[in-house]
Design brief:
By secondary structure, the protein is mainly beta. The protein has a single domain, classed as Rieske [2Fe-2S] iron-sulphur domain (Rieske Iron-sulfur Protein), CATH 2.102.10.10. The protein is built from no helices and 10 strands. Strands 2-3-4-8 form a 4-stranded antiparallel sheet, with no helix packed on it. It has a 3-stranded antiparallel sheet with strand order 1-10-9, with no helix packed on it. Strands 5-6-7 form a 3-stranded antiparallel sheet, with no helix packed on it.
């Protein structure tokens, strides 16, 4: 699959923050942990909470609705690692942020 533009580097969340980006009919949660950018589906597996409105704790994103936690690199749920939110490879190129979806 080719990489496609999601946003620009200037729009990325600050360190320790997450942000939502619309992408076609999806919303993508982009997180920044110590300069490492990750991208995953924005929908919590529990009740569809917006992960990009949650907060980062270590290497996990915490859903703002009910506190469910997901590993930012693998998408694995904290309490049940077999349950995962889709995660997308990310790269930056010429000031653009690209994801493989």
């Amino acid at each position: 699959m080719p990489y496609v533009k999601l946003t620009t580097e200037s729009e990325l969340p600050g360190d320790g923050e997450a942000k939502e980006f619309e992408f076609g009919d999806k919303v993508i949660c982009v997180a920044n942990v110590n300069g490492t950018i990750t991208a995953m589906d924005n929908v919590c597996l529990h009740m569809g909470g917006p992960l990009g409105q949650g907060y980062i704790e270590g290497d996990k994103i915490v859903c703002p609705w009910h506190g469910w936690e997901y590993d930012l690199k693998t998408g694995a749920m904290g309490d049940d690692p077999k349950s995962k939110v889709p995660v997308y490879p990310v790269k930056t190129e010429n000031g653009d942020v690209l994801i493989e979806i």
